[in-house]
Design brief:
nine-stranded mixed sheet; 27% helix; 6 helices; 309 residues
Length: 309
């Protein structure tokens, strides 16, 4: 992933450099699992509102991070060919169609994994000046599906530009393979647009799962509560001291939602329960945030080593 826009990057951080952590909503409840333990994880820590991820959960996070990381290579999007540093991990998956838009340079693809019976919409993160223009358009604008919800205008417009093209392809795949699961994933800006896509699919009657990595905050508290109330299975992967997950700031009205999977400095994955963001995972680290951790999720985030399209 190339960040060749230092001025835009500096401006983005300056707009969101002050973050406060008051009044986090705590939830003292059983942690939901699918391992037959009736909702109480064997890795939960008594008296503390988090647990550690199981091996199966880590495998799932790596699967979706690999897809999101590979999306940065132009050979994959728009090229439609698994030719990239980590593409050997995904070359059994069929690329159905790729998408690139002219105004906001929104890049995405729909893929199908016949081995695991999964249909996945994958959104690329920031890799162009158009993407950074969208990132910097951090005005909260009305979200039409919830009265009190407001969303980041740049992220919303980026998704809306591709929605009319990608939704019919997803619809066709789900219709053709009704026994397959449906998921949406993306890293960084791709995490923001994948969240908006998952909500769009939910509103159309689909049942997607959502996996984001290093995603910024996308909307206000009303939007975050709306996400929680949809009951979309949503895991939000964060990495150590990743700076991007901390912007736009809480002081400017933005909130995260979802079940946070935080890769700690010891590389254990700490899981904070589904709902509004708390102070127990990535927000427990308030100093020395950095970009290096944003660019290195499981060593799977693609970099400048991508071959030419």
């Amino acid at each position: 992933m190339k960040f060749s826009f230092p001025l835009a990057l500096a401006s983005y951080f300056a707009l969101s450099s002050v973050t406060a952590y008051p009044l986090f909503e705590k939830r003292h409840q059983a942690n939901s699992t699918d391992d037959g333990t009736n909702g109480v994880s064997p890795l939960a820590i008594p008296g503390i509102d988090y647990r550690f991820a199981t091996a199966a959960e880590e495998t799932l996070q790596r699967y979706y991070m690999t897809l999101a990381g590979n999306a940065y290579c132009p050979t994959v999007i728009p090229g439609g060919v698994w030719n990239c540093p980590n593409c050997h991990r995904t070359d059994h998956i069929e690329i159905i169609q790729t998408f690139t838009t002219p105004e906001h340079d929104t890049n995405a693809m729909v893929v199908r994994d016949d081995d695991l019976k999964r249909i996945v919409a994958v959104f690329r993160g920031s890799a162009s000046s158009e993407n950074w223009a969208a990132n910097l358009d951090a005005v909260l604008t009305n979200y039409p599906h919830a009265l009190t919800a407001r969303v980041h205008r740049g992220f919303y417009n980026s998704y809306q530009e591709v929605a009319g093209s990608i939704i019919p392809v997803i619809t066709q795949q789900v219709s053709q393979y009704p026994d397959y699961t449906l998921a949406v994933t993306g890293h960084s800006l791709g995490g923001a647009t994948s969240l908006l896509c998952a909500l769009d699919l939910h509103q159309r009657g689909f049942r997607p799962s959502l996996f984001t990595q290093g995603a910024p905050r996308v909307g206000n508290l009303g939007f975050a509560r709306y996400i929680v109330n949809t009951n979309i299975p949503y895991t939000r992967l964060t990495n150590k001291r990743d700076l991007i997950v901390d912007v736009p700031s809480r002081l400017s009205g933005f909130w995260h939602a979802g079940e946070e999977f935080w890769i700690r400095s010891d590389n254990r994955i700490q899981v904070c329960p589904n709902g509004l963001e708390t102070s127990d995972c990535a927000n427990s680290v308030t100093l020395l945030k950095n970009m290096a951790d944003h660019l290195n999720y499981f060593d799977l985030t693609s970099s400048g080593s991508c071959p030419s399209a």
